[in-house]
């Protein structure tokens, strides 16, 4: 998949089931209006909408936002190029290195809590 190097500076994603648009904005260093725009441009990004059309993002949505951010801001892709890149790497056999890193950090935190 992609090596999203600058996403290392982003905060660790907390162990929560749902995130508000403000929380995702903080976790991904992207403004809320940009997230709403990306929802229109990237069909893979579909947060749940509840009461009053409030958006609730799940963990996989946050990881996808970070991946989109990396493509656009770090690797210099255009929106069209990022869409194509996501479609090309959309097969389920691909392993996301960002996901592996995030899981590893969480496991290390759990290990520290257990000790």
Briefly say what this structure is.
By secondary structure, this protein is mostly helical. It is built from 5 helices and 2 strands.
How would you describe the overall organization of this protein?
The structure is a single chain. The N terminus is likely disordered. The chain has one domain: Multidrug-efflux Transporter Regulator, Chain: A, Domain 2 (Orthogonal Bundle), CATH 1.10.1660.10. The chain has 115 residues and is mainly α. It is built from 5 helices and 2 strands. The protein has a two-stranded antiparallel sheet. The longest helix is centred in the last third of the chain and has 18 residues.
- Can you tell me the overall shape? globular
Distance between the first and last residues' Cα: 34 Å
List the strand order in the largest sheet: 1-2
Question: Any guess at the CATH architecture?
Answer: Orthogonal Bundle
Strand tally, please?
2
Order of helices and strands: HHEEHHH
CATH topology: Multidrug-efflux Transporter Regulator, Chain: A, Domain 2
Strand content: 5-15%
Label the structural class. Answer: mainly alpha
Low-confidence parts lasting 5 or more residues at pLDDT below 50? Answer: 1-6
- Return the domain count: 1
Question: What's the main sheet like?
Answer: 2 strands, antiparallel
Tell me the name of the CATH class.
Answer: Mainly Alpha
